[in-house]
């Protein structure tokens, strides 16, 4: 299944039905008068969050979504039927914006939450509404109004409590694969991860916490370099970030600063988000050199403590998870 996290669609409410001009013609109803009914209202276009969806793939090939039109009125003051609302399912975590102005129309985060994005038009009035003492046989009626039509931008931001960030090949996919049942692609070359991966990690209480593995960041990611710019939005909702640094890198402190600079350049409060600094692949650093590497990382991070783990060998993960639960207040 393709992971699509952005889509542009057009939504159109149904047109209201026309009112009609009609008169009563029954045999035993003298001077029956006007009896034209009103038109029905057009249907609304409604977005509804669905927890079973994980992507905006449904909007890749279909771009126009229109609700049903209302029916015209009938004689004997019969109102036409209203158009049926069009309910469109979207993943939880979908932001809805007006395409041209960028105004946020709504943020659907809970399953079953709904947002009306295009209202249907009102139905027209039949001639029965225009009866008066001066005009006993009005022939005037009104047509139904068009429904609203808007271009809409959909943006999916994953709902995860913990985000795993770092440079390519820092071991993010290996970590989430070890901690959860997620099975992302893992290989020994950069940019193995092309889409965010979600995994559920069990808490001590038995409940699950969602972790997100974000594609690797590189210098300039906040300006669009590499893949990070497309997926940085997915860590905007996280409560905690795990900054993973490759211990086998030529300069781990430099790698740390690159990612920190990209978080600051991207904005949206990411640089102020609580973060755990984790040095991965500890088996690649000799024991006598490890204190020096840790000291360099602490200096580069402004004194933030450094935890060492080996995701591939399963070392230090329990200690890291205890720090995660403590930071989340679990």
Describe the structure in your own words.
The protein has 330 residues and is of the alpha/beta class. The protein folds into two domains: 156 residues, GTP1/OBG domain (Spo0b-associated Gtp-binding Protein, Chain: A, Distorted Sandwich); 167 residues, P-loop containing nucleotide triphosphate hydrolases (Rossmann fold). The protein has five helices and 14 strands. The strands form three sheets. It has a six-stranded mixed beta sheet, sandwiched between helices. It has a five-stranded mixed beta sheet with strand order 3-1-8-5-6, with no helix packed on it. The protein has a three-stranded mixed beta sheet with strand order 4-2-7, with no helix packed on it. A hairpin with a 5-residue loop joins strand 10 and strand 11. Helix 3 runs parallel beside helix 4. It is rod-shaped and about 110 Å long. The protein starts with 5 loop residues before the first strand and ends with a helix.
What is shown here, in short?
The chain has 330 residues and is an alpha/beta fold.
What is the H/E order? EEEEEEEEEHEEHEHEHEH
Low-confidence stretches: 185-194, 219-228
Radius of gyration, taken over Cα atoms and rounded to an integer in Å? 29 Å
Tell me the name of the CATH class of the largest domain.
Alpha Beta
Order of strands across the biggest sheet? 10-11-9-12-13-14
Oligomer: single chain
CATH homologous superfamily heading of the largest domain: P-loop containing nucleotide triphosphate hydrolases
Number of β-strand runs: 14
Total domain count: 2
Mean pLDDT: 84
Please describe the biggest sheet, giving its number of strands, its sense, and whether it closes into a barrel.
Answer: 6 strands, mixed
Please give the share of residues in helix: 10-25%
The CATH topology of the largest domain is given as: Rossmann fold
**Count of separate DSSP helical elements:** 5
Instruction: Compute the separation of the termini in Å.
Output: 34 Å
Shape: rod-shaped
């Amino acid at each position: 299944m393709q992971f699509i996290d952005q889509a542009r669609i057009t939504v159109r409410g149904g047109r209201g039905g026309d009112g009609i001009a009609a008169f009563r013609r029954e045999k035993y109803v003298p001077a029956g008068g006007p009896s034209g009914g009103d038109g029905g209202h057009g249907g609304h276009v409604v977005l509804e969050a669905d927890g079973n969806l994980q992507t905006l793939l449904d909007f890749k090939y279909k771009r126009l979504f229109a609700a049903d039109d209302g029916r015209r009125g009938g004689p004997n003051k019969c109102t036409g039927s209203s158009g049926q609302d069009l309910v469109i399912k979207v993943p939880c975590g979908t932001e809805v914006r007006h395409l041209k102005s960028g105004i946020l129309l709504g943020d659907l985060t809970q399953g079953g939450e709904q947002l009306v994005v295009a209202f249907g038009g009102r139905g027209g009035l039949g001639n029965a509404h225009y009866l008066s003492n001066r005009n006993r046989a009005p022939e005037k009626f009104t047509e139904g109004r068009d429904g609203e039509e808007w271009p809409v931008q959909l943006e999916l931001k994953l709902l995860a409590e913990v985000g795993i960030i770092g440079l390519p090949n820092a071991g993010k996919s290996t970590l989430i694969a070890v901690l959860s049942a997620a099975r992302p692609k893992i290989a020994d070359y950069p940019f193995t991860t092309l889409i965010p991966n979600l995994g559920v990690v069990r808490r001590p209480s038995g409940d699950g916490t969602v972790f997100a593995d974000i594609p690797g960041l590189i210098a300039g990611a906040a300006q669009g370099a590499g893949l990070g710019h497309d997926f940085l939005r997915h860590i905007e909702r996280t409560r905690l970030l795990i900054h993973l640094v490759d211990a086998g890198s030529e300069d781990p402190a430099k790698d740390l600063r690159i990612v920190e600079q990209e978080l600051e350049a991207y904005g949206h409060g990411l640089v102020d988000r609580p973060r755990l600094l984790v040095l991965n692949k500890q088996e690649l650093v000799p024991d006598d050199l490890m204190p020096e590497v840790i000291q360099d990382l602490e200096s580069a991070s402004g004194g933030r403590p450094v935890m060492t783990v080996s995701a591939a060998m399963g070392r230090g993960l329990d200690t890291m998870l205890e720090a995660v639960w403590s930071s989340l207040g679990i």
